Amino acid sequence: xKFIPIQCFTAILLISLTYSRRIGIKDQVILSGYDYRTxxxxxxxxxxxxxxxxxxxxxxxxxxxxxxxxxxxxFFYTGNEGDIAWFCNNTGFMWDIAAEFKALLVFAExxxxxxxxxxxxxxxxxxxxxxxxxxxxxxxxFAVLISHLKATLPGATNSSVVAFGGSYGGxxxxxxxxxxxxxxxGALAGSAPIWQFPSLTPCEAFNxxxxxxxxxxxxxxxxxxxxxxxxxxxxxxxDAGRDFLTKTFRLCGPLTxxxxxxxxxxxxxxxxxxxxxxxxxxxxNFLENLPGWPVKKVCDKLSIPxxxxxxxxxxxxxxxxxxxYTGNTPCLNTSQQATASLGDLGWDYQSxxxxxxxxxxxxxMDMFEPSPWNFTDFSxxxxxxxxxxxxxxxxxxxxxxxxxxxxxxxxxxNGLLDPWSSGGVLESPGASLVPIIIxxxxxxxxxxxxxxxxxxxxxxxxxxxxNIIKMWLGQQQ
Length: 477
Ligand SMILES: *[C@@H]1O[C@H](CO)[C@@H](O)[C@H](O)[C@H]1NC(C)=O
Ligand SMILES: *[C@@H]1O[C@H](CO)[C@@H](O)[C@H](O)[C@H]1NC(C)=O
Ligand SMILES: *[C@@H]1O[C@H](CO)[C@@H](O)[C@H](O)[C@H]1NC(C)=O
Ligand SMILES: *[C@@H]1O[C@H](CO)[C@@H](O)[C@H](O)[C@H]1NC(C)=O
Ligand SMILES: *[C@@H]1O[C@H](CO)[C@@H](O)[C@H](O)[C@H]1NC(C)=O
Description:
Elements: H1 8-17, H2 19-23, E1 37-44, E2 55-63, E3 74-78, H3 84-89, H4 92-101, E4 104-108, H5 127-130, H6 135-152, E5 161-166, H7 168-179, E6 186-190, H8 205-217, H9 219-235, H10 239-248, H11 258-277, E7 284-285, E8 289-290, H12 294-300, H13 308-323, H14 342-351, H15 375-386, H16 394-398, E9 410-415, E10 433-438, H17 456-472
Parallel strand pairs: 3-4, 3-5, 5-6, 6-9, 9-10
Antiparallel strand pairs: 1-2, 2-4, 7-8
The structure holds 2-acetamido-2-deoxy-beta-D-glucopyranose (5 copies).
């Protein structure tokens, strides 16, 4: 999804396949008390036509233990591109406030992810079967599921529903309020880059914010990373140099060609990008185990001006914090980030249809090699993989682009350390659209469970969010 500033043809492949790691949160918070039951609801595969009679089973998780059946609200998580249990586990904020609001919690899985796949995993091999993987169909699933729950759960008939979501899930909760304001009273859209689309946000913005987050840790670190690409390219141009890189970075497999070196660079770009997203104040267990404030830890290794081979040695030490914080990684595997789970593939499909998010770098405002946004090339790659061509302007037509001033009751929270804040709503476009800026926040930190190491800015954000939700529900503050 992010446009990796190495040349496009390899980059795109890596980008989209690793999307869910960029935008989604996969760390596991193993906390007791997240008790829910799992249920399935039969949905039409096609909500918008009448000739396809097929159905599929949508998974949802439901927790009733906090709920006051006599008027308590429903807090509804609009699932992202992945297994809903991840998001359930990583949206501690909903669990933290459920008792106070006496709320019913529901986490609904997004179609084509986790266990909610129309036509089963084989669908991924067939463009016609993938055809129903759109945000519109997903929102319709959510709306229909809510109606079903209200009709069948004793006590739910008159419950107000508040949508919650982070990242793409946050985009969905905001869009849910735009499309189905009759179904939900409001939406908390955490780190939702609803404007990371063509002609709404400049393509360089994402990498500029990313670089700023590193710059806050150490400007020298940024200079060193910026210089590292040329150092890698130079060493990577000869057999002896590639051998040096393989040894210095303790790679599992040798770099044997300049193509390998290009992939190696893309792999590093990905690591720096992921780090910025998960730059949380406390240790968290993502795909990689990380210390608190990991960007600072990484930049500590790159805080002395240096160049050449010494720079590459420091760069390895920095990368090793990301890949080997636990000390359990025997060698660094450059193909690891390209591992394609179903969630990654699903997002790749979505980015090749509706979710066109232009990214580019120029090497000046950011710390990467210059790489322009090339839609033609992007479209070609999509056609090769999915037989689809992306429609770059559809999302702004469908969800109103920047003309959302007449929409009501959405909170847009954004951490300024999060590169995705580049496409977020940071200033209020309308009276009851409330931007909340979390100065020290990475990717939807506010939606995570509270933690003693949380900075005051996120504590304040959560209080403000609760007060606004109370207002939507007609409760006194
Ligand atoms: C969610 O957390 C539970 C424990 O609370 C754990 O058993 C489960 O594996 C986690 N699921 C995912 C997908 O992270
Ligand atoms: C729901 O609200 C309507 C209108 O206020 C009321 O007539 C009805 O009794 C309520 N239903 C339940 C189950 O509380
Ligand atoms: C990872 O850390 C362990 C423990 O410090 C070390 O033995 C191992 O060599 C490291 N792996 C790499 C790739 O550096
Ligand atoms: C590197 O990662 C790939 C993809 O996950 C895997 O197939 C391969 O076995 C790994 N290599 C090593 C040496 O761990
Ligand atoms: C964009 O990509 C297309 C297809 O790969 C290529 O022909 C074209 O030269 C590229 N345009 C620019 C400006 O790089």
